[in-house]
Amino acid sequence: MRCPKCGHLEDKVLDSRLSANGTAIRRRRMCLRCRHRFTTYEEVVRAKLRVIKRDGRREDLDRSKLIEGIKKACEKRPVSTETIENLVEGIIEELESEYERDVSSQVIGEKVMARLEKLDEVAFVRFASVYRRFKDVNQFLSAIGGLIGKE
Known about the structure:
By secondary structure, the protein is α+β, with helices and mostly antiparallel strands.
């Protein structure tokens, strides 16, 4: 690792510990030339997941788009931003463990709906109405009836 102060390539690791929920290792290092101490982080580099859209296009999985879609569904509902971010993080971790490269938008939508149904039923219906492209009131009633039947 190159020293950020003098650029020397040799250093000594002084301390290593897990950080970021066990997904990274934090290392304290010391340059062997100038004795400057600095911190580095090491984590697994995964290939970016690509989303296969309904029309066949492919694009990189965008965490912020997922957060924004869920925020819209949860608008004016008692769901915190932290809860939404944790929900998205769980979905992304699950997708990364199940898929190597490509995942369909339908799989992502179903995972979001499954979590929203447990979190907030109104947010679930809102998200489902956009995701499933409800065309009339009967489709809304059907979705709501499904929720009532599960209680």
